[in-house]
Design brief:
This protein has 27 helices and 2 strands. The chain is an all-alpha fold. A two-stranded antiparallel sheet has the order 1-2.
């Protein structure tokens, strides 16, 4: 796939100038610039005081672990002490959050997404305090019950499995209520705000951030800046729509709204020509994917062990290949590139995999749009339905988390679905998805290799092996390097310090915030660049929908089966420690 608009993409042999004239390389440079800034700002926050607090908390964790065969109240309290340490809570982190924050949540008045007076904020905080007091009382009661159950287990010397199980159940119940209390308490801290000037300041930063690369690649900075204002405003509107309380409840996020609003514009009044230079789907999302690489840390992958690797790395290729063959042999899909893009989108990790795969097999823009659209629809449904099914059937939360992590496409949706169940489910689901995300680069290379040597060769297009390199999405190199570098740093400084300066610093304090914005800009661009008339021919016979539905059904069955075998039959000891 080439660029959407405005910049000439060189398809000839690789040369030194590619490093500053090609979109994929600019995605790498921009991504690493963000990561470098994050390191400079947040890594010095690992002070002696922070390390001392971590050391004391670890000592308490050790004592609690030696005392009982399960995670006790003292264990969780020591863990919470460490979790409170966040480099993003520094003055620099708070300023970055203020500048880069998306519009805020709202229920009835959409203006609250941007502005709230001090009196209105005070009234809202007072109302939230009433709710918090009720939840806080429920938390205290849950804590009393948990203490009583733990005491009963202790009196039995922690040798009575029934009493131990009862203690674990009550402690988990307390943790769930405590999480609700924390959220309720956060709402009592609302103050007056005016987000509008910060949004305009942030928009100016993004114009320079992406515009310089666009200009060097052969476009005009002024044209990009003018068009970007519209793209940014539509993306902001998507965040506003997603911030509505009802939309949050039903899991309709900014990605869906960004595409919808873009489609409405492109299919009614049409996307103005002067806006199109800033409609750069791949430029935005590739930069975001480089940032995503820094979030895939090998230490975290190993923390869940071989069961997670089997669920993510064995099932995913089987589903990808099976779905592609089903589309070709059974459905007889006329477009192999659409077939492959949908198969990768559904089996690996949604939009990220779709972008990389579409580039590797040279899928059309409309085919990528269709694959992404299907992914967003099914993701919204699955993130709501799957937790409900897991709770109704009584599936263990470790198994349920692994099932959701391996099947729900978007990382954010996986986290939301896991959090609906419990902390254990969230941890397992997010880690499985992280492991699965590693396959983005592997799949992209495999598809490029297969397309050049098999598909195009069979069609009579004889190309040399150098074409594999040309076809391979170069931004994936940045994705992999970011993962390797941050994984190495994570191991070098230790997971506890790394949590403070990487997880809750460079990543959550900067790169993850920007990545969400970049993805939103990309989804907006997809909508603005897509016309329903161009998509109509791909929907003939409903084959793309059938392909996605059948592939996802296979994915659900295989993932659940593999997760049960790995976590409960082959490696139950690992499961017990999660």
């Amino acid at each position: 796939m080439g660029k959407d608009q405005g910049v000439v993409v060189d398809t000839g042999a690789s040369k030194l100038s590619d490093l500053w004239t090609q979109e994929d390389y600019w995605a790498i440079w921009l991504g690493f610039f963000v990561l470098m800034v994050g390191m400079i700002l947040f890594f010095p926050k690992a002070t002696d005081e922070v390390r001392q607090t971590i050391s004391q908390a670890n000592a308490n964790l050790e004592m609690a672990s030696a005392r009982a065969p399960f995670k006790t109240l003292a264990w969780y309290q020591a863990l919470d002490t460490k979790k409170k340490l966040k480099a993003s809570a520094s003055p620099e982190g708070k300023w970055i959050k203020k500048v880069t924050s998306a519009p805020k949540g709202w229920k009835q008045n959409p203006l609250e997404a941007f502005w709230m007076s001090a009196p209105a904020a005070s009234a809202k905080a007072a109302k939230a305090k009433e709710t918090y007091l009720k939840v806080a009382m429920a938390e205290k009661m849950a804590l009393v019950e948990a203490r009583a159950s733990e005491k009963m287990a202790a009196l039995a010397g922690f040798s009575d499995d029934t009493k131990n199980a009862s203690a674990v159940k009550d402690i988990d119940a307390w943790r769930a209520v405590k999480a609700k209390a924390s959220k309720a308490k956060a709402k009592t801290r609302v103050t007056g705000y005016n987000q509008v000037p910060w949004l305009f300041l942030f928009m100016g930063f993004l114009i320079v951030f992406f515009g310089l690369g666009y200009a060097v690649m052969g476009g005009g900075f002024g044209k990009f800046a003018a068009g970007f204002v519209v793209v940014f405003l539509v993306a902001t509107l998507a965040y506003v729509a997603a911030g509505n309380g009802s939309m949050k409840q039903y899991g309709v996020g900014y990605a869906a709204w960004a595409i919808v609003f873009g489609l409405i514009i492109s299919n009614t009044i049409g996307t103005p020509e002067w806006v199109k230079p800033a409609v750069q789907t791949e430029y935005y999302i590739k930069t975001g994917l480089v940032l995503l690489g820094a979030e895939i840390l090998f230490g975290k992958i190993l923390s869940i062990g071989i069961p997670g690797i089997f669920v993510a790395w064995v099932v995913t290729p089987i589903v990808l290949i099976s779905t592609y063959l089903f589309g070709q042999k059974v459905l007889k899909m006329p477009s192999k590139t659409l077939n492959m893009t949908i198969s990768a989108d559904m089996s690996v990790c949604g939009v990220s995999a779709a972008i990389a795969t579409a580039a590797a097999c040279k899928a059309k823009k409309e085919e990528l749009t269709l694959a992404v659209g299907l992914s967003l629809v099914f993701t919204s449904i699955m993130m709501v339905v799957m937790p409900l099914i897991i709770k109704a059937v009584g599936i263990p939360h470790v198994l349920g988390g692994a099932w959701m992590g391996g099947t729900i496409d978007a990382t954010g949706a996986v986290a939301a679905a896991g959090a609906f169940l419990s902390e254990r489910a969230l941890y397992v689901a997010a880690t499985i998805k992280m492991i699965q995300n590693v396959l983005i680069g592997v799949i992209a290379f495999g598809v490029a290799l297969y397309w050049v040597t098999k598909v195009e060769a069979a069609e009579g297009n004889h190309v040399g092996l150098i074409e594999i390199w040309r076809r391979f999405p170069k931004f994936v190199i940045g994705f992999i390097l970011a993962s390797i570098i941050f994984s190495a740093i994570y191991q070098a400084v230790g997971k506890d310090v790394a949590y403070v300066i990487i997880d809750q610093g460079a990543i959550r304090g900067l790169s993850k915030i920007l990545r969400s914005w970049f993805f939103c800009l990309a989804f907006t661009s997809i909508g603005l660049a897509t016309n329903f008339r161009e998509l109509k021919e791909y929907f003939k016979g409903g084959k793309p929908l059938i392909l996605y539905f059948c592939g996802q059904s296979l994915n659900l069955i295989l993932t659940l089966t593999m997760a049960y075998i790995m976590f409960y039959l082959v490696f139950p000891d690992i499961t017990a420690k999660i």
